[in-house]
Amino acid sequence: MKYIRCLILTALLLSCGTLAAQDKARMAAHQQRLTQLLERVASAPTDNERYLASEEAVDALRDALDEQGSERWRWRLPRSVSVLTSPDGRLRLFTWAVVRDNGEFECFGAVQYYNERVEAYEHEVLHDKSEDIMNREESLLSADNWLGAIYQDIIQTSAGDRTYYTLLGWNGVDNLTDRRIIEPVIMRGGVPQFGAPVFRRERNLRRVVLEYRGDAAVQMAYDEQTVQTVIRERVKVKGRYRTVEKTKESKEKVIIFDEVEPQIEGMEGLFQYYIPSGLELAYAWVDGKWELRHGAQGRLTDKKLNKPFEPLSKEAPSYKY
């Protein structure tokens, strides 16, 4: 009897191994198919061919994400595609762009997430509605109504029992402007919601959108940097108490980015005239909110702290895996 039990256990282990190998083979086939399609998205000579390849890539990605265990697959896709996974493994985003002959960008992709309500991984296709979204910094958005971007980084934070995922993204927009985005994501009703009121003292702000001249070098990165904080203290001066301001410097993990402003006075709202002001700003995660810090010192003044960061180029995009 003991011998028979050993045989049964061995058979079960071999069966599990075979299934795992079959799963890997299926995912590898999906990856190969996706790679071929996404390479066509980047290199096809006409708009129609690029869009057709992108639509086929979306369908192929959906098929891949339907596979059991796809959330554990380590993707290796072309560099024109961003694949980001949150540290807890519960959120994964695939994003890429179709660049039209006239220089305009349209973003595509999908989001895979763990739905606690059904205790399973699900996925949704992302639909770029950038041109239809009027209040871009204030709107609550979904996968069906998405402010298109190619995501470069995902930052996981928490407050109480809620987890926040903050995405740093870029969009080439068109020949005139580029766009950088800080996009908070939370799970609501089991599905991801894009945009959240997590910016301290900016009540209606649900995401940060920087739009600027297309050839301007505007940086945004999550990094350890030196930041300055203004502290107000009551001190006794000549027998009387007064409020004085002191500047405190500290090294923190922050979202650091270039402030942008119109190059020419009177051009407010015409983003093709926006360039870096020369100042850097930073958001630090403090007590469940992103708190804006002025006087951040980043790439130019504290190079030893800064990770290598390659700005995105419309000619040769570089994305973080």
Report on this model:
The chain is α+β, with helices and mostly antiparallel strands. The protein has one domain (33-305). Helix content is 19%, strand content 41%. It has helices at residues 2-43, 47-65, and strands at residues 82-85, 91-99, 105-115, 120-127, 150-159, 162-171, 177-188, 191-194, 208-213, 220-237, 240-262, 274-286, 289-293. The strands form three sheets. Strands 5, 6, 7, 8 and 9 form a five-stranded antiparallel beta sheet that branches. A four-stranded antiparallel beta sheet has the order 1-2-3-4, with helices on one face. The protein starts with a helix and ends in a 28-residue tail after the last strand.
SSE arrangement:
Elements: H1 2-43, H2 47-65, E1 82-85, E2 91-99, E3 105-115, E4 120-127, E5 150-159, E6 162-171, E7 177-188, E8 191-194, E9 208-213, E10 220-237, E11 240-262, E12 274-286, E13 289-293
Antiparallel strand pairs: 1-2, 2-3, 3-4, 5-6, 6-7, 7-8, 7-9, 10-11, 11-12, 12-13
Helix pairs in contact: 1-2
